[in-house]
Amino acid sequence: MKNTKGSFLPSKALDYFLQLTETMNYTQAAQILGISQPALTQQIKKLERSVGAPLFYNVGKKLHLSDAGYTLLNATHQIYETVSNATDQIQRSTQVNQGTIDIGILSSIENDVFNDFVINYYRKHPDVHISFHVLTRKELWERLEDNQIDLGIMYLPDSSIKNWKPYDSKTIIDDELIYLHHNEKYKNLSKISLSKTLKENWVTYPQDYYLSEIINDFYKKRMLDSPNGVAHFTKSSSIYRFASEIELSTALPASYVEANNRGENQLYTASFEPKIEFQLSFVFRKGKEKIPRIDNLLEEFENYLSEKDYVSRLTELNKME
C-alpha cells in the first residue's frame, strides 16, 4: 500500500500494528508475534514515518491509539476485508467438486465424527482436498480473520469476540454441561444447584479453555466462587477418566456424557440448575457459505447427521476412542 508521499506501508508492519492494537502492550504483542520488543518498536516507528503521524501515545504507563492510529486501524480492517471478499468472490466461481477446504477445529473437541464424515466425503469428492487444523480458540479466530481457514468448529456463544459483523455461524448441536460426581448424597438428584457442586474438588479443562470460562462466568454472575479445580486436561476423555479414577467432580458436555458414562466406572450425573447451555457450531466469514464446495460440504454434513437417528449421531459426536 502506498501513501501520497510515495512511501509504502508494508503488510508485515500492518500485522504488527494490528497485534499491538489488540494488546496495547509492546511486551505482550512482541511475545505473541515471536519477535523482540525493539524489533516491534522499530516496525511501528517505520509505520509512523510512512503515515507522517504518531499512531500511539502514552498516559502514564498506559498505551492509547492516537487519532491517526484509529484512522489507520479502520483503514487496515477495510483493506483486509476487501482482500478476503475478493478471495471469496474468486472462489465462488469454482466448481463444487474441486478446490481446497481448510477447517479449524477447537482442540478440546472430540473429533471422531468429523474424521468419519471427511472419509465419507472424500469418497464422493476426491478432487476436494480437505485439511483439518487442531487449534486453540485464539488461533482459530486469528486464522478465520486472516482467511487461512474456511470453517471453524467451535463452541458458541463466545463473548471474547467483540466484532461479529464479518462472521456467520451454523449450529451443529445444542448442548449443555452436565455435572458428574461421586457423592452418594446427591446420586438421585436429576438437577443440582451450583452451591452444592462447590463442596467437591474438580478436574476441569485449562482455565483459558472455552468450557472452563463459561463455567467460571456462570458461577461469578451468581455471586459464587468458581469450582476448585485441582487437575486440568484438554480432552473430555482425559477429564472423564481422571474424575472416575481419582473420584473428583467435573462438568462435561451432555452429548459426551450420554455416549461415555457407562460401565463399572459410571459417575453420578445431574443437570445444573439453572442449566449451562451452549452450541457446537460451524463459524465462517460471511460469504463463505456461498462458495459451491463449502456450501456442498455444509449440506452433506447436515445430511450425514440425519442418516441415522439424530440422538445417536449426537452421542457419537463426542464418543471416546
From TrEMBL:
Q: Does the keyword Lyase apply?
A: no
Task: Return the Gene3D superfamilies for the record.
Answer: Periplasmic binding protein-like II, Winged helix-like DNA-binding domain superfamily/Winged helix DNA-binding domain
InterPro entries associated with the record: HTH-type_LysR_regulators, LysR_HTH_N, LysR_subst-bd, WH-like_DNA-bd_sf, WH_DNA-bd_sf
Q: Give residue ranges for domain HTH lysR-type.
A: 9-66
Where does the source fall among the domains of life? Answer: Bacteria
UniProt key word Nuclease: no
Task: Write the record's keywords in alphabetical order, separated by commas.
Answer: DNA-binding, Transcription, Transcription regulation
Cellular compartments per GO CC: cytosol
Q: What are the recorded GO MF terms, alphabetically?
A: DNA binding; DNA-binding transcription factor activity
Where exactly are the transmembrane stretches of this chain?
none
Task: Give the family per the record.
Answer: Belongs to the LysR transcriptional regulatory family.
What name does this protein carry?
Answer: LysR family transcriptional regulator
Q: Which organism is it from?
A: Candidatus Ligilactobacillus excrementigallinarum
